[in-house]
Amino acid sequence: MKINEPAGFKKQHVVNIISDQRTGVLSSGENNKPHSRYMTFYNEELTLFTPTKLDTEKIDEIEKSPFVSVLVGYEDKGQSDSYVEIAGTSTINSSQKLKK
After folding, report:
1. Which of 11, 18, 27, 60 satisfies CB 3.0 to 4.6 Å to 36 for a cystine?
2. d(C-alpha 11, C-alpha 25), whole Å
3. Comparing C-alpha atoms, which of 70, 56, 58 is closest to residue 23?
4. Given the DSSP bridges, would you call strands 23-30 and 67-72 parallel, antiparallel or unpaired?
5. This prediction's pTM
6. Is the pLDDT of residue 75 over 80?
């Protein structure tokens, strides 16, 4: 998933959050209803990757509609916790190079 940069965007702050917090929530949709699940995320700068099996419900949902939302970073320490909420599109990449 690639991130569009809105005004006031602080890239390094976002990269730090998504690099430090590997667990987040991936939300996709099916039949106009949201479906959220915890996932492990890896990143290259502002591109997020998450491993999964190809025969899962989330893959079916993303193939039907690539629009997703990801929430990463909240540590449950209080209201001042940093987090990132990302809305974008997702693609399936099953390359062996990426898996390694």
Report:
1. 27
2. 20
3. 70
4. antiparallel
5. 0.79
6. no
Q: How confident is the prediction for the chain on average, in pLDDT?
A: 86
Burial 57-66 (b: 16+ CB within 10 A, else e): ebbebbeeee
- Return the ∠ at Cα 86 (arms to 82 and 89), rounded to 5°: 160
Residue among 70, 50, 73 nearest 3 (CA): 70
- DSSP assignment of 24-68 equals EEEEEEETTEEEEEEEE-EEETTEEE----TTSHHHHHHHH--EE
* Contact in structure between 10 and 52 (CB atoms under 8 Å): no
Task: Give the whole-angstrom CA distance, residue 11 versus residue 67.
Answer: 22
Report residue 5's pLDDT band, with 50, 70 and 90 as the boundaries.
low
Helix (H, G, I), strand (E, B) or coil at 15: helix
Better pLDDT: 43 or 98: 43
pLDDT value of residue 7: 61
The whole-angstrom separation of Cα 91 and Cα 84 is 20
